[in-house]
Amino acid sequence: MTDSSSKIARPVLVGLGMMLVAFNMRPALTTVGPLLEAIRKDTGLTASGAAFLTTLPVLCLGLACVLGPVIVRRTGAERGVLIAILIIAFGSGLRGLGGLPPLFAGACIAAGGIGLAGVMLPGLVKRDFSENAGLMTGLYTMVLCLGAATGAGAAVPLADALSGWTWALASWAVPAVVAALAWIALVPKQENGPPPPRRSSLWRDPLAWQVTGFMGLQSSLAYITFGWLPVVLQSRGLSAVEAGFVASVMSIGQAPSALLVPAFAARLSDQRGIAIALLALAAASFLALVHGPVGLVLPLGIGLGLGLGGLFGLALTIVVLRSRDVTSAAGLSAMSQAVGYSIAALGPLGFGFAHDVFGGWSVSAGLFCAIALASGVFALGAGRDRKVGTSLTA
What is the rounded distance in angstroms from the CA atom of residue 145 to the CA atom of residue 155? Predict the structure, then answer.
């Protein structure tokens, strides 16, 4: 292969590899919700314990993001992604041992791998696809949403086919191993030049905090939905299979907006309006799923998916758009996801506790809307046409 053809082929291969990695960045999280009632029945897990099961992985995801820039500097982005996907595979497989300790440990380990991969992918987009950042962000976000949908929809059928929830959860190690094997070919045999220079900290930059707040709060909406929507729907009379199907349809509904919103938002100088519209769609759809007619759960699930998928794709796009270069993209990605996912972890926990304390789902649904409102406040700052670090010395 000539040098020119190699330069053309490598970004294509990196893009395909990113899609395989992205597919594995949600099933470890979305497969638990549809099986939560079966897990509780089999293990005696309380509602509060279930809230922690949906919260701890998100918290671990956020904490792992802190390590992302360190790993990139020491190993390079490609090796870092390989490490991340192997961690996802290990954590997913660990859940097959059965019992609560392997379930909690495996979920947290897999979430740590997801956090590492999530920090590194925006940097690869900025490095290899800077002129098509919106399109590439949309593509891998769409595939990520399809992975989430596949996990949610296949959870109960896999549990039936494999005689229990343990093997159904552990089976998601297989696609992660496939992605790792494919990604190995992209890891350079030696470092590609010196590590990127350090930049001044973004922790004193108001715009970086606004991006972080938007990332975290919109993510909280998604993790509440992943963890609790199937339980809410079962409480309204749907079977576990039906609730899992609605959750899967909701995740599939994320795909088109996750693809189209980043590409559209990247063409705009200001993303505030689209952020507010998507937040309103998500909040209204969730309220209707909790209180509206049961016969409309499928179209309402699609509406919720469109809102959440668009928000996630928009948040990732804003990280790239607000960054000046590859280094600031990695730093902003790490900060927004590390702090943001730590904030997001409180959403599922608060949602479950509100249900325990007040009974029913009205107060929990009100909490969902309050988080959406707070996310909108941060979006008003994060969506402006500015760059992080402009007030800081390099």
Answer: 15
CA distances from 185 to 4, 143, 261 (A): 19, 21, 31
pTM of the model: 0.77
241, 156 Cβ separation under 8 angstroms: yes
What residues have CB less than 8 Å from 113, skipping those under 6 apart? Answer: 64, 83, 84, 85, 86, 87, 88, 89, 90, 91
CATH fold of 11-189+199-382 reads Growth Hormone; Chain: A; (1.20.1250)
pLDDT of residue 197: 53
**How much is the pLDDT for 280?**
97
Res. 391: pLDDT tops 60: no
pLDDT at 8 over 70: no
The DSSP result for 179-206, as a single string, is: HHHHHHTTS-SS--SSPPPP---STT-H
Give me 56's structure tokens: 């701890």
Crossing angle, helix 173-184 and helix 77-94, to 10 degrees?
160
66 by Cβ neighbours in 10 Å (0-12 / 13-18 / 19+) ranks as middle
CA-CA distance, 80 to 334, in Å (whole number)?
14
Q: Count the neighbouring beta carbons within 10 Å of the beta carbon of residue 11.
A: 15
Mean pLDDT of 204-216: 93
77 Cβ neighbours under 8 A, 6+ residues apart: 120, 123, 124, 127
* Whole-number Å distance between alpha carbons of 259 and 262: 6
Are 137 and 314 contacting, i.e. CB atoms less than 8 angstroms apart? no
Taking residues 369-373, report their average pLDDT: 96
What is the pLDDT at residue 305? 93
Between CA 278 and CA 388, with CA 377 as vertex, the angle to 5 degrees is: 95
Q: What whole-number distance in Å separates Cα of residue 45 and Cα of residue 250?
A: 26
Query: Within 10 Å of residue 254's Cβ, how many Cβ atoms?
Result: 30
